[in-house]
Amino acid sequence: MAWADEIKEIKTICHCGKKATMNARIDGSGQMESSGEQIEIGGNERYVSLCRECFYSENTGL
Ligand SMILES: [Zn+2]
Questions:
Q1: pLDDT digits (tens, 9 = 90+) for 8-53
Q2: In the chain, fewer beta carbons within 10 Å around the N or the C end?
Q3: Which residues, by Cβ under 5 Å, contact ligand 1, an ion?
Q4: CB neighbours of 47 closer than 8 A, spacing ≥ 6?
Q5: What is the pTM assigned to this prediction?
């Protein structure tokens, strides 16, 4: 299952090229949602992997 490991590795790279250690929730308009609301699963939201730096600067790369 080498291919699975490879996919996993790709997903954990931030758009800036650093290793992603955070997962940010992005709504339909490309804005990072706050961690306060965790409802409406299955909408337009999606998750992106970000490094710590981009996560706290809300730089989603979108
Ligand atoms: Zn980054």
A1: 555 689 999 999 999 888 887 888 876 555 555 566 778 888 999 9
A2: N
A3: 14, 16, 18, 51, 54
A4: 23, 24, 25, 26
A5: 0.62
